[in-house]
Write a structure and sequence with these properties.
By secondary structure, this protein is an alpha+beta fold. Helix content is 39%, strand content 23%. α2 crosses α4. The longest helix is centred in the last third of the chain and has 22 residues. The protein is globular.
C-alpha cells in the first residue's frame, strides 16, 4: 500500500437510491468512497448524498478485506456529529482539506466516546 491516499469510488448506477441511513430518506446517494488515510492508519468509509450530507464510518488498521466486510455502513451517531461539527468548527474546516477535517472530527468523536465510556 502506498503512503498516498488511495480512493475507491463506487458511484451507484441505479440512481436515485434512497437510504434509511441518511437524515432525509428521499436523499439521493451519489457515491460511496473507501479511503485509506495513512496519516491516521485508518480506512474511512464515506457515503455522499445529493444534499451534501456525508454518512461516515472508519476502521483503524489496514486490513481492507475486513474493512469491506465489517465497516462499510455508516455510523449514524458519528455522521450526525460530523454534520454538526461542519458548522461549529468552520474556522478549522476552512484551514484543512475535506479529508483532513473528516479525520479530525473522527478523532474528536472517538476521544469523546472513549471518555464517556470511561467515566459513565
Amino acid at each position: 500500500m502506498s503512503d498516498s491516499v488511495t480512493k475507491w469510488h463506487e458511484i451507484q448506477e441505479s440512481m436515485p437510491k434512497k437510504s434509511k441511513k441518511s437524515k432525509d430518506t428521499s436523499d439521493r446517494l451519489n457515491a460511496v468512497e473507501h479511503i485509506w488515510y495513512a496519516e491516521s492508519d485508518r480506512w474511512i468509509y464515506i457515503e455522499r448524498y445529493a444534499s451534501g450530507y456525508l454518512g461516515l464510518n472508519y476502521m483503524q488498521g489496514d486490513e481492507y478485506e475486513y474493512f469491506k466486510k465489517n465497516w462499510c455502513e455508516i455510523n449514524r451517531a458519528m455522521s450526525e456529529f460530523y454534520d454538526t461539527m461542519k458548522t461549529d468548527l468552520i474556522k478549522l474546516r476552512v484551514e484543512m482539506s475535506e479529508l483532513e477535517f473528516i479525520d479530525k472530527v473522527m478523532w474528536i468523536y472517538f476521544e469523546a466516546a472513549t471518555k464517556y465510556d470511561e467515566y459513565n
